[in-house]
């Protein structure tokens, strides 16, 4: 075999090179791994020690870092800590490396550490905040901080030099005191008198030196030291007693004492070789003598009786020698008056408690920290059991090392009153805490897990449970399928009340029982099914059909059972009988079709919906006509200033349409320009003399019962330099015109002045008569505050007649601009989170109505109406009311102050008053009204009733002038303030609170006894139907909110209303003129009723007789 040729460098060299490369690569990979491992270890060590923290891009940092606080011992300390990003981060605190366990005295609040009362033994050391990312395990520690505890200890006077003082030597004393921060300096006192630097006295730091002492220097030496936190007097003094010939020698010297205020203090003092012993009070030069409070005994002891706070200070005992020239000897002692503060329930107990009631769960741990009041001397404090025995520092119930009352594994027998006592010689203070032990709640299964309820009925669901008593335990109900819906339930007894059940009440209901200290327990769901009753949806309404068109009137029904719908035409001669449908009419899918519409088709039609068990019907009126059509269209015109203008506009229809003109889409914008601008009988707009302000868009609207038609044109008025406006509409000019103008102006001014003077005189006489009448009707003697408030009296005794009977000139408090003509959700937007419920007022046709607190607005307490209905007609009515109260601006009408429209349900906030609705207020003045005080507020006088009626008349005048209709005017929908100011609102609590005042008619709730026949039966609501309701409102005011026609049932009342047999009789309390006005408001024909402008004027002019 032939040999394989080798490379010229040889095989050994090639193999060695391959081995070298492999070893080199292996070593490099191992080295890289070792380096990375060491680097990770180093970073971990730096991170754990706080020496290195990652940047925000790498995770999170501790921010803010805790700072060492300076706190006086016994006071509160707060250590702040946080992280830049708290996502998946847990924070805890350590002390000297040990994790801190929360207690009442020292606990975490959020990420911060709060120490209620700093203790030098328990709180000395290093504190660190430790943050841990629970996802990655990364841990960061803050810088270590310490609490700088501020304190000042007792001061003592000590002999520094010599050890045995003798006459003629130098005496050095020191004032020994410790504290943090260190005391700055000391002041020295000799027998209570401050010493100053001199030839014999020198000071150095806390040392005092007295040179060449003699018997004259005998006495008591004391000091006073201070730092930034406190000031202390020396508790131990130095007494210098040098002997000298003929100098009185002290044998028993007076001692410092501390006594309680009102008690007795005694000082002993005995001298040898003294001729007389005298006592001096602090800062007094006259010796004390025996008196009512001062007694100097034969042995020279001093007794001070009934010690007062101002007696505190130094008392000097002076020994007067027997020989002249010998120095007196003075030895002083301090008397202090002890005191102790009071417990403050808000700050003297931790955790803070409501009504000093501490609720704990059975088997848990109870801990209470008592913070005793300050005092001198420092009070001694301790806890006692409910039986009065003192709690020790051992056992299951004990005072722990953190000075907390601690009860482990709480039992039912531990319940009771535990008292914290603090006492010194001044007094004893006690703070009692009631310990209540709760048991775990239990919920029993419901008798039935499924209920079938009929729409329109009522039902009560009861929650069967066992738990601690109310208010420690509360019960709530929730509709799982509609959790946002507010329910009416009793949180104490657990009863859920479903009133006037609707389809939206269907769902699964859960009963939740919550006891303090235990998790909430929930019952099994109760499924409520609502059997829908038969009803029209929507209800057919009176309809106008266009002649020769194809007309359609639907009649749809809904209910638990499918209904058969049938249309019939009413016999005009006998309404109880029907006639066959004409040949041009047919029924198709519950829709009555007119093909085509003829004038003979007018009349009454009845839709009947029937099932096997029930039948309903509705009757409507069909009218036939021709909607307006323009025959002559106006043209856009340009005219020179001062020239006449004709804008032609003619229309035809059946009935003949009415022509209305407006400028720039503003209603009644041309009415004040009469007679310069007129609408002629043929519909032409005639401007006799065009002004520059007449430039704009002019709209011609033609309307009849068939509808409206509108067209707009523009008018441009060009300026004329020579034009002078003339008030003579005939067009004459010259001197005659100027003379006539001047004459007319002066004559008008004269008539105006006479009118003003006459009105002033009339008002003055009328005001005086009213004042005399109303003051004369008040009872003699002292009236109650409530009577004074209702009578409208002020401090001077004058009657606030402008509150009870506002003048007609105050009917408008503002104007409604075009900008406010639409509901502005953006302008009225209010955050739902800033709304907190106070109480449920009731339920209306739209949903719940409740009181709430709205943070950040002037009207803090508001009434909130919620929209839960999904029916289009209900939504439109809800928006109509909201728009009405938004656009109106009058002191007698409630305003919309906010809306929550970002999520369902829509919430509209109305302002509210301090006394609530007027009906409740009026009912409270009845003698038969229940009251807890045993007395009733007095009923309104006739003058006050007239004042209420006048306020509402002015507000309704304003409302009707702005083309709004209230539809539900009654005392229940008016609010009253404590000043007897009345505001028109519309809570309309038709589903529960005032459900008896509404009647379900044609699938809608109507205020049957407050509405005229045309509104209830024909659904024709107008300002004249509000006039009818206003008379019923006045009837309520004068009868203290009695129910109108209480003896007539709603079905009977409806029948009488249809046949015009309702007889209204004004209350006898009304003034005769008011009775006549109310009768005119109740007239059957709409055109016979007065307008609100007439009503407000007449009510303001009615004189209230004193004897009424």
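Q: What amino acid sequence fits the structure above?
A:
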């Amino acid at each position: 075999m032939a040999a394989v040729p080798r490379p010229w460098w040889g095989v050994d060299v090639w193999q060695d090179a391959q081995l070298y490369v492999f070893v080199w690569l292996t070593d490099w990979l191992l080295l890289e791994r070792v380096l990375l491992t060491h680097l990770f270890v180093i970073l971990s060590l730096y991170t754990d020690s706080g020496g290195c923290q990652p940047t925000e891009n790498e995770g999170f940092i501790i921010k803010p870092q805790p700072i060492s606080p300076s706190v006086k011992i016994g006071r509160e300390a707060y250590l702040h800590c946080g992280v830049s990003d708290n996502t998946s981060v847990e924070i805890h605190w350590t002390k000297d490396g040990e994790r801190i366990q929360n207690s009442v005295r020292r606990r975490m609040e959020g990420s911060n550490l709060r120490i209620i009362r700093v203790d030098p033994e328990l709180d000395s050391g290093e504190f660190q905040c430790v943050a841990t990312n629970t996802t990655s395990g990364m841990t960061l520690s803050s810088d270590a901080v310490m609490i700088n505890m501020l304190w000042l200890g007792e001061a003592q006077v000590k002999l520094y030099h010599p050890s045995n003082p003798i006459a003629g030597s130098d005496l050095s004393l020191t004032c020994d005191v410790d504290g943090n921060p260190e005391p700055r300096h000391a002041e020295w006192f000799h027998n209570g008198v401050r010493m100053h630097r001199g030839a014999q006295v020198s000071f150095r730091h806390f040392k005092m030196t007295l040179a060449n002492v003699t018997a004259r220097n005998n006495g008591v030496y004391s000091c006073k030291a201070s730092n930034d936190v406190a000031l202390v007097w020396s508790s131990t003094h130095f007494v210098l007693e040098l002997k000298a010939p003929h100098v009185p020698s002290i044998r028993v010297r007076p001692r410092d004492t501390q006594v309680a205020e009102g008690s007795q203090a005694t000082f002993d003092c005995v001298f040898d070789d003294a001729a007389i012993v005298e006592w001096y009070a602090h800062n007094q030069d006259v010796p004390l003598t025996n008196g009512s409070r001062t007694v100097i005994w034969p042995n020279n002891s001093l007794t001070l009786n009934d010690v007062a706070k101002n007696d505190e200070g130094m008392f000097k005992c002076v020994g007067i020698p027997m020989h002249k020239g010998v120095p007196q000897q003075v030895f002083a002692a301090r008397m202090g008056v002890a005191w102790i503060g009071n417990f403050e329930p808000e700050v003297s107990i931790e955790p803070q408690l409501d009504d000093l009631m501490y609720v704990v769960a059975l088997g848990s741990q109870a801990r209470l920290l008592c913070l005793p009041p300050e005092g001198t001397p420092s009070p001694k404090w301790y806890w006692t059991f409910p039986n009065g025995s003192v709690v020790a520092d051992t056992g299951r119930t004990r005072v722990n090392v953190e000075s907390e009352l601690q009860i482990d594994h709480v039992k039912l027998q531990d319940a009771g009153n535990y008292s914290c006592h603090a006492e010194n010689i001044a007094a004893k203070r006690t703070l009692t805490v009631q310990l209540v032990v709760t048991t775990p709640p239990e919920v029993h299964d419901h008798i039935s897990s499924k209920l079938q309820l009929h729409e329109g009925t009522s039902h009560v669901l009861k929650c069967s449970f066992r738990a601690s008593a109310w208010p420690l335990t509360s019960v709530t109900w929730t509709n799982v399928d509609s959790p946002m819906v507010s329910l009416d339930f009793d949180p104490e007894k657990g009863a859920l009340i479903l009133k006037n059940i609707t389809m939206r009440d269907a769902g699964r209901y859960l009963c939740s029982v919550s006891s303090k200290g235990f998790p909430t327990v929930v019952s099994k769901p109760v499924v409520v099914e609502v059997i829908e009753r038969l009803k029209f949806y929507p209800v057919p309404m009176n309809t106008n059909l266009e002649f020769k068109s194809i007309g359609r009137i639907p009649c749809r029904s809904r209910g638990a059972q499918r209904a058969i719908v049938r249309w019939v035409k009413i016999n005009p001669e006998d309404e109880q009988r029907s006639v066959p449908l004409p040949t041009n009419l047919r029924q198709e899918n519950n829709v009555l079709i007119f093909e085509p519409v003829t004038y003979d088709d007018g009349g009454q039609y009845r839709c009947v919906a029937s099932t096997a068990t029930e039948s309903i019907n509705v009757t409507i009126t069909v009218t036939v006509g021709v909607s307006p059509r323009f025959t002559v269209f106006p043209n856009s015109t340009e005219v020179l200033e001062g020239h006449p203008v004709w804008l032609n506009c003619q229309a035809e229809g059946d009935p003949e349409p009415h022509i209305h003109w407006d400028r720039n889409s503003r209603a009644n914008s041309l009415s004040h320009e009469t007679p310069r601008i007129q609408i002629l009988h043929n519909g032409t707009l005639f401007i006799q003399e065009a002004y520059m302000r007449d430039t704009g868009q002019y709209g011609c609207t033609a309307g009849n019962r068939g509808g409206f038609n509108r067209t707009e044109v523009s008018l441009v008025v060009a300026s004329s330099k020579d034009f002078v406006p003339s008030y003579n509409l005939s067009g004459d000019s010259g001197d005659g015109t100027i003379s006539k103008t001047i004459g007319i102006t002066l004559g008008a001014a004269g008539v105006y002045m006479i009118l003003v003077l006459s009105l002033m005189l009339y008002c003055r006489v009328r005001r005086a008569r009213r004042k005399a009448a109303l003051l004369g009707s008040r009872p003699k003697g002292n009236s109650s505050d409530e009577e004074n408030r209702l009578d409208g009296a002020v401090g001077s005794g004058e009657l606030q007649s402008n509150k009870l009977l506002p003048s007609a000139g105050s009917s408008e408090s503002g104007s409604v601009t075009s900008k406010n003509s639409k509901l502005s959700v953006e302008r009225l937007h209010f955050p739902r989170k800033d709304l907190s419920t106070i109480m449920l007022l009731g339920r209306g046709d739209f949903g719940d109505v409740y009181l709430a607190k709205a943070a950040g607005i002037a009207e803090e307490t508001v009434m909130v109406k919620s929209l839960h209905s999904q029916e289009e007609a209900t939504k439109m009515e809800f928006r109509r009311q909201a728009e009405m109260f938004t656009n109106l601006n009058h002191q007698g009408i409630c305003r919309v102050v906010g809306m929550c429209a970002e999520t369902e349900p829509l919430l509209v906030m109305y302002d509210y008053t301090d006394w609530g609705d007027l009906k409740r207020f009026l009912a409270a003045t009845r003698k038969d009204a229940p009251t807890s005080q045993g007395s009733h507020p007095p009923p309104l006088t006739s003058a006050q009733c007239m004042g209420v009626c006048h306020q509402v008349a002015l507000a309704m005048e304003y409302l009707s002038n702005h083309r709004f209709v209230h539809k539900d005017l009654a005392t229940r929908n008016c609010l009253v303030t404590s000043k007897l100011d009345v505001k028109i609102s519309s809570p309309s609590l038709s589903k529960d609170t005032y459900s008896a005042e509404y009647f379900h008619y044609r699938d809608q709730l109507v205020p049957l006894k407050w509405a005229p026949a045309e509104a209830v039966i024909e659904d024709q609501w107008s300002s004249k139907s509000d006039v009818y309701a206003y008379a019923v409102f006045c009837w309520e005011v004068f009868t203290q909110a009695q129910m109108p026609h209480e003896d007539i049932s709603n079905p009977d009342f409806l029948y009488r209303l249809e046949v015009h047999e309702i007889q209204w009789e004004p209350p006898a309390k009304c003034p005769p003129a008011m009775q006549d006005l109310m009768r005119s408001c109740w007239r059957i024909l709409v055109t016979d009723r007065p307008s609100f402008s007439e009503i407000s004027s007449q009510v303001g002019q009615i004189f209230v007789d004193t004897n009424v």
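Q: And what stands out in the fold?
A: Residues 749 and 755 are 10 Å apart (CA to CA).
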